[in-house]
Specification:
Blueprint lengths: L14 H9 L7 H32 L4 H15 L3 H6 L1 H13 L6 E5 L4 E2 L5 E2 L4 E4 L1 H5 L14 H8 L31 H18 E5 L9 E3 L2 E3 L6 E5 L1
InterPro entries: Cyt_P450, Cyt_P450_CS, Cyt_P450_E_grp-I, Cyt_P450_sf
GO molecular function, one term: heme binding
Protein name: Cytochrome P450
Length: 247
């Protein structure tokens, strides 16, 4: 970039390059600042994916009846198409389990944090002065009464709903990556998580590998390990035990 500037035609199209270009030539372009940005993004993407995997493993171990149908789905798809992006998209049951696990174990109990940059008054008269922060209560919304048995883990809930809407072409709204005012796992609107598609592929690759090769059950005292909360963060129990057996 220093040598060629705008004349560098074959520059890579990746995160490091985006950060370099967005930094410009000011203080933000210092090595320390660039590294800080990379570390921040690593933290934001890695710990959330790790937490989602652990929560899903706890849920699969606590609901062993889900494992045989998941194994059948994964085995059939991989035997026909191998591991590919298209194969992962076809794993509707696995997608549903991940979304349901994230619904009940939302990484953050709040979502869509916004700051009022101008004074704003809602239709009910609520007034927001400049500088007011507003958030959506994600955990409460994900367990609202609009969802049947909202506090119960129903692994194939979204796969069934997708099948019901298949004819109308609206099945996609039940996918784990689909954001809405009812599904705030990845936020919603203009600032919804842009990395959610990549993250979901990671989760499906990891969990399909586990399902295909292992049987799972809870160890320890029994019962799904309870979540821990640190402020608005929902953390998987670090003391939880899952036992694996090779198929």
């Amino acid at each position: 970039m220093r040598e060629l500037g705008a004349e560098w035609k074959d520059r890579p199209d990746d995160l490091i390059q985006w950060i370099l270009e967005s930094a410009g030539d000011g203080e933000a372009s210092s090595e320390e600042e660039l590294i800080a940005r990379l570390l921040f993004l690593n933290f934001a993407s890695i710990h959330t994916t790790t937490a989602a995997v652990v929560h899903a493993l706890y849920d699969l171990a606590a609901n062993p009846e889900l494992q045989a149908p998941l194994l059948a789905e994964v085995t059939e798809i991989l035997s026909k198409s191998g591991m590919s992006k298209q194969s992962l998209t076809k794993m509707k049951k696995l997608d549903s389990v991940i979304r349901e696990s994230q619904r009940l174990n939302t990484t953050s109990t709040i979502s869509m944090m916004r700051k009022a940059l101008v004074p704003y008054t809602f239709s009910d008269g609520t007034h927001l002065p400049i500088g007011t922060w507003v958030v959506a209560p994600a955990a409460a919304i994900h367990q609202s009464a609009s969802i049947p048995n909202p506090t119960v883990f129903d692994g194939f809930r979204w796969e069934r709903m997708g099948a019901e809407d298949e004819a109308s072409g609206k099945a996609g709204k039940h996918a784990a990556v689909a954001t809405s005012f009812e599904n705030l796992i990845f936020g919603h609107g203009k600032h919804a998580c842009p990395g959610r598609f990549f993250a979901m592929q990671e989760l499906k690759i990891l969990l399909s590998h586990v399902v295909e090769r292992f049987e799972l059950r809870l160890g320890g005292a029994g019962g799904r390990p309870r979540n821990r909360f640190l402020g608005v963060s929902c953390l998987a129990d670090r003391e939880g035990v899952v036992e694996f057996r090779m198929r």
